[in-house]
């Protein structure tokens, strides 16, 4: 093979290798909810039918090429054939059954996944923003961002909305991919079947930092979920003197223009609710680990971390940033 041709194979090799190996937190093949298991049934059917057809078609082709190839000794043309009713009926009717075998679970899964929530469901209003997600639990009185907690084994019904551009909500191991469309409410529901953290990603191009619009669903035991809800419902603890000073810095720097911290005068909903931001494992929608160095980095230059960020650079001095960072970290 010419070296240039061999180079063409390189991308193929990369695709192949990318699919290899162990634990992929965003692999759709590891289904951990009732919904993703149903999706995998469809996926499996499509895959095996495609494989079977590939083998039949390629096998038939190779057989024909070998069996009927010219030997150079022919004296007449081979028998000339036109049409074959039985063959044509077979390859019309069989595909109808194959397609039904795929279409029936597809359509029923789509309808089931957006059916009305059952009475014991945990409902969440998910709002796609540029470039983060707001999660509100209307019945539980909880508002948070980018990290949705849900209880194991209980139905979770999410209302998907956007007040800006198109986004798409996708946690490969727990949910289907479903769009968040301005002016419309889409629904998705699932029951998580495994404890742990599951990574999600906005799956519809929505501007500069679309690729950095990540989130996660944390599946807790019902007891841990109840504890989480209690903690999230509480207003921020701002009694300590140190946190009062921190809040003053937060206020005078202008952060209050966009953020809410319940229990304080900060009540704007332009940016994520920060009441319990310290309880999240990541900040800025799954981009930075939640620690002092990263909070400081983020608040001193959000556009550096997320190009086009709607959080403006307030030109904080390093001292201001330190004091605000210390305060943010108390918001557990
Ligand atoms: Cu996006």
Explain what you see.
The chain is 39% helix and 18% strand. By secondary structure, the chain is α+β, with helices and mostly antiparallel strands. It folds into two domains: 29-47 and 91-229, Immunoglobulin-like (Sandwich), CATH 2.60.40.420; 241-330, Immunoglobulin-like (Sandwich). The radius of gyration is 27 Å and the shape is elongated. It starts with a helix and ends with a helix. The site of copper (II) ion has 7 residues, from loops.
Notable characteristics:
three-stranded mixed β-sheet, elongated, 8 helices, alpha+beta, 332 residues, binds copper (II) ion, 39% helix
Question: What is the topological layout?
Answer:
Layout: H1 3-18, H2 34-67, H3 85-113, E1 122-129, E2 132-137, E3 142-145, E4 147-151, E5 155-162, E6 167-169, E7 178-180, E8 186-191, E9 196-201, E10 214-220, H4 222-233, H5 241-253, E11 282-283, E12 288-289, H6 292-300, H7 302-305, H8 318-330
Helix pairs in contact: 2-3, 5-8, 6-8
The chain binds copper (II) ion.
Copper (II) ion is lined by residues 167, 202, 204-206, 210, 213.
């Amino acid at each position: 093979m010419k070296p240039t041709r061999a180079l063409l194979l390189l991308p193929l090799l990369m695709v192949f290798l990318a699919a290899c190996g162990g634990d992929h937190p965003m692999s759709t093949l590891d289904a951990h909810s009732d919904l993703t298991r149903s999706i995998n049934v469809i996926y499996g059917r499509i895959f095996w039918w495609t494989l079977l057809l590939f083998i039949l078609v390629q096998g038939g082709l190779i057989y024909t090429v070998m069996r009927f190839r010219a030997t150079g000794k022919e004296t007449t043309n081979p028998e000339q054939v036109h049409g074959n009713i039985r063959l044509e009926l077979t390859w019309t009717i069989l595909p109808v059954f194959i397609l039904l075998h795929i279409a029936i679970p597809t359509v029923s899964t789509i309808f089931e996944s957006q059916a009305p929530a059952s009475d014991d469901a945990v409902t969440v209003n998910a709002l796609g923003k540029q470039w983060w997600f707001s999660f509100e639990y209307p019945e539980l009185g909880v508002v948070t961002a980018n990290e949705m907690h849900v209880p194991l084994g209980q139905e979770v019904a999410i209302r998907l909305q956007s007040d800006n551009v198109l986004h798409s909500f996708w946690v490969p191991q727990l949910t289907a991919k479903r769009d968040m469309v301005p002016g419309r409410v889409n629904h998705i529901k699932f029951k998580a079947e495994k404890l742990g953290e599951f990574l999600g990603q906005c799956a519809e191009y929505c501007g500069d930092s679309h690729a950095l619009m990540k989130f996660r669903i944390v599946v807790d035991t019902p007891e841990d979920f109840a504890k989480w809800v209690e903690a999230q419902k509480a207003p921020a603890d701002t009694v300590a003197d140190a946190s009062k000073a921190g809040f003053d810095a937060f206020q005078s720097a202008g952060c209050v223009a966009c953020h809410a911290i319940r229990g304080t005068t900060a009540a704007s909903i332009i940016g994520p609710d920060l009441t319990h931001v310290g309880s999240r494992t990541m900040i800025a929608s799954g981009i930075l680990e939640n620690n002092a160095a990263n909070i400081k980095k983020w608040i001193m230059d959000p556009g550096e971390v997320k190009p086009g960020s709607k959080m403006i650079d307030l030109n904080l001095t390093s001292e201001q940033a330190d004091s605000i960072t210390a305060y943010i970290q108390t918001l557990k």
